[in-house]
Amino acid sequence: MPDTTLASEKLTYGEAVRAALRRCLTELPETLFYGEDVAKPGGVFGVTRGLHRDFGDRVFDTPISESAILGSAVGAAMLGRRPIVEIMWIDFAMVAFDQIINQLANVRYVSQGLLHAPVVIRTQQGSAPGACAQHSQSLEALFLHVPGVRVCLPWTAQDAYDLLVTAVHSDDPVVVIENRTLYNAGKQEVVLAGPVQRMGEIRVRRAGTDVTAVTWGAITAKVLEAAELLAGEGISVEVVETPWLNPFPTDEVAARVSATGRLAVVHEANVTGGFGAEVVVRMAEAGVALRSPALRIGLPDSRVPAAPSLVAGLMPDAPRIAESLRKLVHS
Amino acid sequence: MPDTTLASEKLTYGEAVRAALRRCLTELPETLFYGEDVAKPGGVFGVTRGLHRDFGDRVFDTPISESAILGSAVGAAMLGRRPIVEIMWIDFAMVAFDQIINQLANVRYVSQGLLHAPVVIRTQQGSAPGACAQHSQSLEALFLHVPGVRVCLPWTAQDAYDLLVTAVHSDDPVVVIENRTLYNAGKQEVVLAGPVQRMGEIRVRRAGTDVTAVTWGAITAKVLEAAELLAGEGISVEVVETPWLNPFPTDEVAARVSATGRLAVVHEANVTGGFGAEVVVRMAEAGVALRSPALRIGLPDSRVPAAPSLVAGLMPDAPRIAESLRKLVHS
Amino acid sequence: MAMRELTDLHQVWRMRAFEEKVRELRLAEEVVGSVHLGIGQEAIAVGAAGLIGSDDAVFATYRGHSWALACGVPPENLFGEVLGRTCGINGGRGGSAYLTAPRYRFFGENSIVGAGAPIAVGAALAGRYDHSNRVVLTVFGDGAMNQGAVHEAMNFAAAMLLPVVFLCENNSWSELTPISDMVGDDRLYRRAAAYGLPGERIDGNDPDVVRTHLASAFERARTGGGPTLLEAMTARLVGHYIGDAEQYRRPGELEEARRHEPVTKLTEQARRNGAADADIEQAELVAREEMESAAAEALRSEHADPATAKDHLYA
Amino acid sequence: MAMRELTDLHQVWRMRAFEEKVRELRLAEEVVGSVHLGIGQEAIAVGAAGLIGSDDAVFATYRGHSWALACGVPPENLFGEVLGRTCGINGGRGGSAYLTAPRYRFFGENSIVGAGAPIAVGAALAGRYDHSNRVVLTVFGDGAMNQGAVHEAMNFAAAMLLPVVFLCENNSWSELTPISDMVGDDRLYRRAAAYGLPGERIDGNDPDVVRTHLASAFERARTGGGPTLLEAMTARLVGHYIGDAEQYRRPGELEEARRHEPVTKLTEQARRNGAADADIEQAELVAREEMESAAAEALRSEHADPATAKDHLYA
Ligand SMILES: Cc1ncc(C[n+]2csc(CCOP(=O)(O)OP(=O)(O)O)c2C)c(N)n1
Ligand SMILES: Cc1ncc(C[n+]2csc(CCOP(=O)(O)OP(=O)(O)O)c2C)c(N)n1
Ligand SMILES: [Mg+2]
Ligand SMILES: [Mg+2]
Which one in A290, B155, C236, D300 has a CA-CA gap of 20 to 30 Å to B58? Predict the structure, then answer.
């Protein structure tokens, strides 16, 4: 809930990210921000413009060397810095995944807490029209199987701001997965100076009584569209966005799902091995009784083609999500 | 079912792997086998001894360059070879994960089947006494979220042989995840010249009526031990090993689980985001009715410490598995 | 009669006309998504084209339209791919940045910086066993030289003496960042010595210079001499992608680059060596006509059929 | 009076005695799992020890016991770690191959080949902002030079002129494979030039030679001159890990190596410069006694408590 006593500004999602970076660079002198093209050019999406000018050599450009970017962040964090690094596309993290899974995630644990690694990895993911198979994946599930690393996916401009601020203030490594289709998608009112929020809060984006749709990331918009479509038919869909997946707010989500008795998890990632499975199982483990088996909606286990017409054949859109929810409610 | 008309030999798991490599190198002239220390030294575990001597330059050692090993396998496969490459520890695949997720997995799809990439990645994983956090992970879930790549984990010597033979004959990329604690763990009767088997078969390792434990990899032994413990108490545990996880034999497993009405999935990997979640959800999606919520047993979302006493505090062992199954059956 | 210059000029124009048409289609939103043009860099692909034998293989980057054309991929199928049409060389699955045409020895683009180099090394490795005497050409940018995979590929090829030609198209920019800021020594060809390889920096705006040096590298590879690193100096006259505002350019940079770019250079050379104005004009006109009609043909093709989107994942 | 040689010899003996004791404990199955000894390579760590300032940082590999000792980590806590005891420097979480002791400037071993190099670069980067004038020493093997991460680390440090000393312990083997088969040119120090860095090959069996060359590299780093690559030639006199059958050794290789190993070398030097036999013997005896009692102390510590195994995952 935004605190209405605080000043707010109309910002795009991208501007909200920049505002969060600016705030963190200002209030935490140990922060650094670096990555490919982020400093002088201001980022390939223009998100980080002006930061190098204002924060000097605490904001800098790097070679195209993801292992060096991530590895140096681990090392700088061990020695007291609080590095925020950008990996331009989540797909590129795969060239240096070792530095996350074998290095970053172990620092605190292996040193018994003597060292910590407050690294924030800012990246973005997802499908966008015409992007190729190597620039289209939704890979949050890979990071969510790595104990020691927090993961969140902001969808609103407010969350783009809040989650990043929380991530940077955290003493744990956090992967913040943004979405490039949102950076310039219109301005929203964003409260800027609020207190650092705790991780793991849920966002009930729409109230509803027949089914709870749990979702995260850019696809939240399509779920809301689907809910709107179904409202016209008298089906009441509750839309719960969980921008934090680690920590995942199991209890809060379970309470919502229990109330409607039906669950659908919607993500852009592939279904098999996606975090949707985890959510479904956690609800069962939490003892949530469902009126019909939970539904998973996501990319149907495929690579992502470039042609928009082909992507349309794969990616869940509002009508398809609505259709699945309708079936679920009527089953 | 081993064909009893075929000759068999007493082999260790490691020897069975070697026999499979030998067979594939003999019957498929387009195979190559390479990796770090695999040729002249015969592998760090001695598994591949003699192959370089017998197959000459089709078996060779490489620099410590996992991106080059995996990438060159992709390229050699595109040009008609059938490379089998070893990644010494699954943890090391993380330094070059791009070559699997962004390259290997896309070859067939993006070329509309004009190209294919029959690469076999042989690797091994898991916890072993004293191994450090960077040499102890069970990472199958990461590969199982990558459409286009098959994944299996042999546990018996027979499967170490059969699965590898199947993998090499497949025109799809296959990741064969072995386990180093098994290589020298005693001899078993192995049928050697059988026909290439199809992927995805299940192994019912123990019949039972009260609960179906689905498992894979080296932990299967502990599940069987647990079943034995429980048998003494009158609890009848069915143990279904699924050495293939992609393709996963959903229907066959569902049939078994339906029969007992209870499901536990046991793996060495971390619970959150592990493939256990996928199995549980698939059973629900297949309409399997359970008498009590499914159980997941695995590493409780932790890094892996080196000290055996610490590992003992984390890793499911037979008594602990038995305890969980007992609770499940009595719940 | 300046035949060589005219032929090269025509080839450069084919690539440029192709890409200018792609840009037009992109701005008209017939093409969607990110498109990387190599306008200004065509001389490298033109210089290489004639050297690529029937068993050879080429691996390029997302900036690879010219390389696909150099390998002989029909322009209508390339347009089709960029447009996401059924006639696309990959039926729309690859798109501008990830196209593949193995039948034409073009083993594809790659949109992960540096990832193509080890794959190319594997193609060369395959040649050890199939008696093809294959040489593999792998092309990447200056920025890619800082990627671990490229290092591993060069060392691997050097250790095994594989027939690979590593060709670095140094356009001085990695996206929006100058290479000179991202290395300790920006003479990238000198890295060859680290691997015990021959390395050379050459003029990448002159197809004939490229041809001569690449020919030696191909010859060395073909005759068991192992890999070579060539650093072809060039300039991209356009943005990193279509839409790039290019605010990072240094004053006068583009003006200077245009004085040395392949069309300017070849036109002057042709003229100097006696080519007629009409022939010089033809070199461009024929290319533009070819590309206009190829594009038109591609636009007549259907959008890729969504019902096929799940095909070809597994054998 | 050969004081320098005697001190160095004693330090070498401390490391050797430590590792010989670890081997004994491993063979007695008090220690379990894979253990990598650096017996024969100690002169490098001994040469470095005195140069490491209080704000500096050292990053090693799984073969890092000597480096931990060089940084001043108490041997009983190292034994404890290798033994998985509560008194272990990481309470048993790291083990022999992944220990860390930041209080002693030892930022740890790393069991992923090459992965420590970029992390070390980050430690150097941190020094830009904390006014520490920190120099970071990162140590890795010959085989690690072929890993992408090491390449990226060197280039990154070179481009940013960071105070890192890259120290390659060339023992001529990568596990069971000779480095000379795995590269096109086995003079690894020559790779420095690729990044525009100074690079040198030195005798890694003589602590004083190591000291001299490392001192220059530290000085260069400390005064803004950026990184250096040093290739210290040495030999591991034991297997890659305890239990390695070493079938890959060339005939006579170990005999030859033993003639040049640090104990032999320093003993000769000390003798030549007038050290008394008794002092030479003391250098060893005192070291052995220290390590025996440290091991005994560690063995008295409890096995790490399973109930704590889940602690310290998150803040
Ligand atoms: C591993 C990886 N990191 C980052 C990117 C984003 N990216 C795409 S092109 C590019 C610049 C490449 O520069 P260069 O190698 O010089 O090639 P050029 O674009 O100039 O042809 C970058 C950083 C990527 N595609 N892959
Ligand atoms: C990325 C990665 N690949 C492979 C290994 C397995 N491995 C451990 S040590 C080693 C050899 C390293 O040789 P070198 O760098 O020369 O160091 P040395 O062991 O000789 O000290 C290998 C291949 C690993 N730990 N990490
Ligand atoms: Mg460039
Ligand atoms: Mg070595």
Answer: B155
What is d(CA D155, CA D118) in angstroms, rounded to the nearest whole number? 10
CA of B94 to nearest chain A CA: how many angstroms apart? 5
> Are the C-beta atoms of residues B206 and B177 closer than 8 Å to each other?
no
Q: Which residues of A have a catalytic role annotated? A: 135
- Tell me which residue of D154, D143, D141 sits closest to D41, measured CA to CA: D141
- This complex has an ipTM of 0.98
User: Phi, psi (5° rounding) for residue B227?
Assistant: -60, -40
Separation CA C287–CA C12 (nearest Å): 9
Region A8-191: CATH code: 3.40.50.970
Chain D residues near any Cβ of chain A (below 8 Å)? 57, 59, 90-91, 93-94, 98, 100, 102-103, 107-108, 110, 112, 115, 117-130, 134, 136, 148-149, 152-153, 155-156, 159-160, 311-315
Q: What does the domain layout of chain B look like in residue ranges?
A: 8-191, 203-330
Other C-beta atoms closer than 10 Å to the C-beta of D128 total 19
User: Which helix (H) or strand (E) covers residue A34, if one does?
Assistant: strand A31-35
Backbone φ and ψ for C48, nearest 5 degrees, come out as: -80, -30
Q: Does domain B203-330 have CATH number 3.40.50.300?
A: no
Question: Fold match between B8-191 and B203-330?
Answer: yes
CA distances (Å), origin B319, targets B155, B182, B222, C290, D83: 20, 21, 9, 75, 26
Listed residue (D80, D29, D34) closest to D299, CA to CA: D80
**Which one of A36, A48, A64, A65 makes the best mutation probe of the C interface by having the most chain C beta carbons within 10 Å?**
A64
Element (H, E) at D256: helix D253-260
Sort out which chain B residues have CB atoms less than 8 A from D182's CB and list them. Answer: 61-64
Give the tokens for residue C314: 């597994």
Ligand 1 surroundings by CB, under 6 angstroms: A 36, 64, 66, 88, 92, 95; C 61, 63, 111-113, 140-144, 169, 171, 173-175, 240
